[in-house]
């Protein structure tokens, strides 16, 4: 029986970790705008990434399906904004994504900061989109979010986040209207509402 | 010392694998690039098939990395604990693996789920308890480790378990998000669950099979050992009962012998033969024979009754009982001059030499040949060599000829074992040299006993 002690320790540790994860799941219903009442931006749209997560391509596909004129340039710089009427930033930190750019995470933060500041300077609306929800809720994504949110004009994200109350409070603080959806398919309507 | 060296080597190899596993992502940057490019392409083309290929590439990459880390941690834990069966080994393995995964997360910021790795390392620790700790341990462990890591990697790709904390690493998240966009997670919830279950089942079945086979082999070996012990006991029992019967028979001979001795004396008294009469001569010869018979019985009944006897006398006694009629055998005896007498149990020792000679005679099977007996002094002993030019003994049989029951001629197989026992009982040694087709030599070495030793031994044997 003694030989099973290490296995029991693993089971106990797994159980503790599981309890911690389950407890932090949302329990209350989340209220947010279904979509924007009027468009805030026009075409042509620059879709870029903050954190270089691979799933940013999904937003380009959604834009294509909505027949929106958009470019997906995940590594776009502030100097690239001259050609666009709106900026859409896909939020999500990816270590592998960053590793395949010539930049470090600190440089990615600087690039994002310069991009949103230039967008504000050019009066371009900034739409912040989070496609990953709780799956990419880490320190790096949080840092990027905190940096972008003061410049954002609209936020679209998923309902399955660990701390939705905290998210909505932060957005409210910066007067950013937010739409939280259940599935990625539901993203099309609020995204379309920002431009049409 | 060599075991110590082995553990050092295992520990070094484990550390090397751990470091290699930790550094592996830096060697395969193209692999990661391929995964990300493939993922982007699959999203652009809305191609689930390509997403699946991406998932396979992801699984291959992380199974390889995890394999290096887990196997390295196992070897390092073994070198530290030096016992695969100990709890220290299991705890060391768990601790080292988790420490390596924490370091991996810190270095590469991949956000691997610790829950997934605790479950994986727990499963491996459980299954390794059922792997026999024998020479194939490393191979079987690596196989089971591979299947568990495959199962664990697919577990990370089950979107339904994401909210429990499984599959939080970078690429797994991207794949699951893409799948959520394509099929609302129906594809990976189904496929990843099937793969996870399949690999886990294979790992469990493999462990149980190995465990059961090992148990069966162990039981079989135990049965074989018991059977051998039983056989040895049977032989010993037969031998002891044979000796007991002979002893009883010889003992029973004493009574009619005493009667014959008494009656002979009585007849001699009644007939009162003259000094030089033939009858007196016959009575004398009868008395001598009766005395000889009494000596023989006494020597058979007690192994320790020994007497001083010259080699010449012993060999004459032995050869006088040999039946060489109808044999084409040339029996030669060559005894060195001035040899001291030997101190032996005449009957038993004669029987032993007779056994050797009879074996040699039988081996000729009626064909012509020679048997030569050489006796000479070597240092403090006397060498008695019996050499014949018969067919010889096969090399493979040389080791077994002294065993009880070993025979190539369907005989009892106790002849040579008896010879060995008798020689050893006389503090001597016996060896055999044989070249099949050429000759066979039986060498008996007997120690020469100095004056005074005989008495002491005799007294000691009666204590």
From TrEMBL, chain A:
Domain DUF6305: 43-195
Tree of life domain: Bacteria
Entry-linked Pfam families: DUF6305
InterPro entries: DUF6305
Protein name (record): DUF6305 domain-containing protein
Organism annotation: Lentibacillus populi
From TrEMBL, chain B:
PANTHER family: HISTIDINE KINASE 1, TWO-COMPONENT HISTIDINE KINASE
Domain Histidine kinase stretches: 248-450
Major enzyme class: transferase
Record field: catalytic activity: ATP + protein L-histidine = ADP + protein N-phospho-L-histidine
One Pfam family recorded for the sequence: HATPase_c
PROSITE patterns in alphabetical order: HIS_KIN
EC assignment: 2.7.13.3
Name of this chain's protein: histidine kinase
InterPro entries in UniProt: HATPase_C_sf, HATPase_dom, His_kinase_dom, HisK_dim/P_dom, HisK_dim/P_sf, Sensor_HK_Regulatory, Sig_transdc_His_kin-like_C
Organism the protein comes from: Lentibacillus populi
Superkingdom to which the source organism belongs: Bacteria
CDD domains xrefs: HATPase, HisKA
């Amino acid at each position: 029986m003694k030989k099973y002690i290490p296995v029991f320790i693993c089971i106990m540790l797994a159980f503790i970790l599981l309890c911690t994860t389950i407890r932090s799941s949302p329990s209350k219903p989340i209220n947010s705008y279904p979509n924007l009442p009027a468009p805030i931006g026009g075409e042509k749209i620059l879709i870029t990434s903050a954190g270089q997560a691979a799933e940013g391509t999904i937003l380009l596909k959604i834009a294509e399906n909505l027949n929106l004129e958009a470019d997906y340039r995940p590594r776009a710089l502030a100097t690239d904004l001259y050609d666009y009427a709106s900026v859409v930033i896909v939020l999500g930190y990816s270590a592998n994504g960053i590793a395949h750019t010539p930049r470090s995470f600190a440089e990615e933060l600087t690039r994002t900061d310069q991009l949103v500041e230039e967008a504000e300077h050019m009066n371009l609306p900034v739409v912040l989109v989070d496609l990953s929800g709780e799956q990419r809720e880490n320190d790096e994504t949080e840092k990027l979010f905190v940096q972008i949110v003061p410049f954002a004009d609209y936020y679209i994200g998923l309902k399955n986040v660990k701390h939705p109350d905290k998210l909505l409070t932060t957005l409210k603080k910066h007067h950013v209207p937010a739409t939280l959806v259940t599935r990625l398919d539901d993203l099309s309507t609020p995204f379309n509402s920002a431009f049409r | 010392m060599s075991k110590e060296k082995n553990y050092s080597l295992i520990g070094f190899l484990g550390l090397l694998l751990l470091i290699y596993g930790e550094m592996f992502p830096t060697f395969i940057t193209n692999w990661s690039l391929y995964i990300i490019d493939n993922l982007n392409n699959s999203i652009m083309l809305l191609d689930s098939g390509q997403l699946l290929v991406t998932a396979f590439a992801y699984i291959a990459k992380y199974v390889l990395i995890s394999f290096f880390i887990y196997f390295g941690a196992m070897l390092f834990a073994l070198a530290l604990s030096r016992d695969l069966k100990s709890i220290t080994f299991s705890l060391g393995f768990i601790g080292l693996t988790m420490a390596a995964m924490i370091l991996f997360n810190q270095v590469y910021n991949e956000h691997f789920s610790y829950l997934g790795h605790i479950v994986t390392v727990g499963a491996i620790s459980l299954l390794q308890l059922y792997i026999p700790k024998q020479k194939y341990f490393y191979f079987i462990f690596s196989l089971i480790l591979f299947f568990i890591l495959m199962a664990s990697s697919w577990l990370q790709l089950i979107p339904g378990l994401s909210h429990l904390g499984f599959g939080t690493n970078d690429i797994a998240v991207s794949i699951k998000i893409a799948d959520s966009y394509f099929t609302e997670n129906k594809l990976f919830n189904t496929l990843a669950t099937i793969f996870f279950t399949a690999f886990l089942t294979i790992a469990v079945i493999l462990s149980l099979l190995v465990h059961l086979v090992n148990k069966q082999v162990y039981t079989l070996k135990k049965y074989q050992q018991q059977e051998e012990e039983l056989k040895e006991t049977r032989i010993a029992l037969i031998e002891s009962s044979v000796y007991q019967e002979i002893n009883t028979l010889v003992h029973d001979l004493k009574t009619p012998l005493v009667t014959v001795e008494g009656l002979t004396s009585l007849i001699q008294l009644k007939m009162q033969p003259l000094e030089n009469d033939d009858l007196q001569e016959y009575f004398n010869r009868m008395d001598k024979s009766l005395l000889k018979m009494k000596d023989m019985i006494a020597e058979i009944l007690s192994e320790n009754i020994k007497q001083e006897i010259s080699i010449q006398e012993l060999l004459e006694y032995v050869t006088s009982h040999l039946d060489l009629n109808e044999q084409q055998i040339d029996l030669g005896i060559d005894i060195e001059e001035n040899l001291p007498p030997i101190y032996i149990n005449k009957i038993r020792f004669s029987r032993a030499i007779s056994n050797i000679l009879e074996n040699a005679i039988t081996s000729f099977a009626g064909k012509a040949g020679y048997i030569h007996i050489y006796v000479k002094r070597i240092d403090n002993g006397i060498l008695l060599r019996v050499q014949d030019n018969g067919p010889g003994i096969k090399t493979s049989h040389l080791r077994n000829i002294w065993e009880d029951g070993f025979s190539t001629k369907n005989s009892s197989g106790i002849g040579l074992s008896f010879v060995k026992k008798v020689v050893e009982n006389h503090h001597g040694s016996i060896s055999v040299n044989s070249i099949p087709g050429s000759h066979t030599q039986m060498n008996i070495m007997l120690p020469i006993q100095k004056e005074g030793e005989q008495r002491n031994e005799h007294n000691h044997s009666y204590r």
